[in-house]
Write a structure and sequence with these properties.
Belongs to the DNA photolyase family. By secondary structure, the protein is mostly helical. The protein has 3 domains: 123 residues, Rossmann fold (3-Layer(aba) Sandwich); 115 residues, Alpha Horseshoe (Serine Threonine Protein Phosphatase 5, Tetratricopeptide repeat), CATH 1.25.40; 173 residues, Orthogonal Bundle (DNA Cyclobutane Dipyrimidine Photolyase, subunit A, domain 3), CATH 1.10.579. The protein has 20 helices and 5 strands. Strands 3-2-1-4-5 form a 5-stranded parallel β-sheet, with helices on both faces. α2 links the parallel β2 and β3. α5 packs across α11, α13 crosses α14 and α15 runs antiparallel to α16. The longest helix has 22 residues.
Length: 473
């Protein structure tokens, strides 16, 4: 009898525990991806990730076909779909990889399926280590990154990845599949994803290409270059592939082992471990995306202005580095890490808009949106998180721009209306003399917005609100 293999956020054949074990058993494998309705801990995916999912499923289906198998698509509640498929195919076992943010939902599904007599096996998910296996000396979860990293560096060498199976035995006949195009995952009118395909190749092959490119050169200067958004391709761009499980973190880690352990290589591993740390926090605190880790922030006087929020989402705040970041996000479904910090700080501290609004917007627009990394990073910037940047560290969008994008390359790429402005003013067009603006063809307030807030005043206001909240506790 066949084994049902339930694909979720592990859309790959390489280093896929559930798949390799299913193949080793010698039994036929029925591969299924289920589009589930919204439930606790389950989706829905944002628009940008729906685009990605479409292409990733397409790639997975082709990879399975190459191995003599097929991807079956079904919609509905997972427990119902799986028990129905088990009956149809006479499968007696279900294999899947753990999906950490939906542990609670999975428990219910497994409970419902057990009564149908299916043998159920769960394998490690998209992490180097299961959170339960990494605890502090006193037995609790790590809440601070540095000791977490040290523990992992000392004796947390991840296991070796397992290669893709050479063949995946097919059942005698395949159950029916829904058609991917009927899932309508791609945007139509307007098609805001026109540029995505130029940058991204969803799927396992795309992930390995990105890794290969990165290991060949950019990793050698990663530590210093990673903070400069004007340098294209200075980072790995693996985040969406990791979010969909098209490549495993153990595979990435393993591939870096062939390189000399320079500071750059170690720094890259440290970033992978930030991702890991975020997941360990999420498992410890499943409400990471909705509740302040530090409940002192529950009393923070957030103020929602629809007009200001809209200006932020559209990249029309009048601060060039913020606007470039928000426009990159819209056009590419991605934003450089340094600029994510600047734009998030701007929303939270300059506009005093609740970090959760920003987290939601990123979730809808990022191709790499990830329940752990997105929430923990927003809480990091807000100061409400576990190992967070203090609230009083307010990013100055002008100085950050001048420091990390000194020639304005990044700004000019995404805010073309400022291209003719002399470098001196590229991050502060509102300080440029009238004749300089005229020569650059800029009419502030018309061709490019005036700043929607005064950064200095906004900063003072935010700090006063923070002092008020912390003073009260
Ligand atoms: P690289 O620099 O090549 O790093 C390699 C990998 O390490 C990344 O792919 C990622 O998996 C991990 N990583 C790097 N930085 C971080 C970090 N700060 N936290 C956790 N993991 C990290 N990352 C996401 O994957 N999904 C998100 O939804 C997300 N939301 C964010 C929101 C905010 C407000 C901020 C400040 C950061 C967010 N990040 C998120 C983290 C980071 O910006 C991206 O992981 C990184 O920019 C991805 O580009 P890369 O793959 O080229 O990274």
């Amino acid at each position: 009898p066949p084994i049902l293999l339930w694909f979720r956020k592990d859309l790959r054949l390489d280093d896929n525990g559930a798949l390799s074990q299913a193949c080793e058993s010698g039994r036929p494998v029925v591969c299924v991806y289920i589009r589930e309705p919204k439930q606790d801990g389950i989706g829905p995916l944002g628009g940008a990730q729906e685009w990605w999912l479409h292409h990733s499923l397409d790639a997975l289906a082709a990879a399975l076909a190459d191995k003599g198998n097929r991807l079956i698509l079904r919609s509905g509640e997972a427990a119902k779909v799986l028990s129905g498929l088990a009956k149809e195919t006479q499968a007696e076992a279900l294999f899947y990889n753990r999906h950490y943010e939906r542990d609670a939902a999975d428990k219910d599904i497994v409970g419902a399926l057990k009564s149908s007599g299916l043998e159920i096996k769960r394998f490690r998910g998209q992490l180097l280590h299961d959170p339960e296996t990494m605890k502090t000396g006193s037995g609790g979860a790590y809440r601070v990154y540095s000791p977490f990293w040290r523990a992992l560096e000392k004796d947390g060498e991840p296991r070796d990845p397992v290669s893709a199976p050479s063949k995946i035995a097919a059942p005698g006949s395949f159950p029916k599949s829904e058609a991917l195009k009927d899932w309508s995952l791609l945007p139509t009118k307007p098609d805001w994803a026109t540029e995505f395909g130029r940058i991204w190749q969803p799927g396992e092959a795309g992930a390995h290409k990105k890794l290969k490119r990165f290991l060949k050169k950019p990793i050698q200067t990663y530590k210093s270059d990673r903070d400069h958004p004007g340098l294209e391709d200075a980072t790995s761009l693996l985040s969406p592939h990791l979010a969909f499980g098209e490549i495993s973190p153990a595979r990435i880690w393993h591939e870096t082992k062939g390189l000399e352990a320079t500071n750059d290589v170690i720094h890259f591993r440290k970033e992978l471990v930030w991702r890991e740390f975020s997941y360990h926090l999420l498992v410890e605190f499943p409400k990471l995306a909705t509740d302040n880790w530090n409940d002192k922030f529950d009393a923070f006087p957030w103020h929602f202005s629809k007009a200001q929020f809209s200006a932020w989402t559209k990249g029309m705040t009048g601060y060039p580095i913020v606007d470039a970041g928000m426009r990159q996000l819209w056009r590419h479904g991605y934003m450089h890490n340094r600029v994510r910090m600047i734009t998030a700080s701007f929303l939270i501290k300059d506009l005093m808009i609740d970090w959760r609004k920003g987290e939601e917007w990123f979730k809808d627009t990022l191709v790499d949106a990830d329940p752990a990394s997105n929430a923990s990073n927003w809480q990091w910037v807000a100061g409400s998180g576990a190992d967070a940047s203090p609230f009083f560290r307010v990013f100055n969008p002008i100085l950050q721009g001048e420091k990390f994008d000194p020639d304005g390359d990044y700004v000019c790429r995404f805010v073309p209306e400022l291209r003719k402005l002399p470098k001196k003013y590229i991050h502060r067009p509102f300080e440029a003399p009238k004749e300089v603006l005229e020569r650059a063809g800029i009419k502030l307030g018309e061709t490019y917005p005036k700043p929607i807030v005064n950064h200095g005043e906004a900063r003072d206001k935010a700090l006063a609100a923070y002092a008020d909240v912390t003073g009260r506790s």
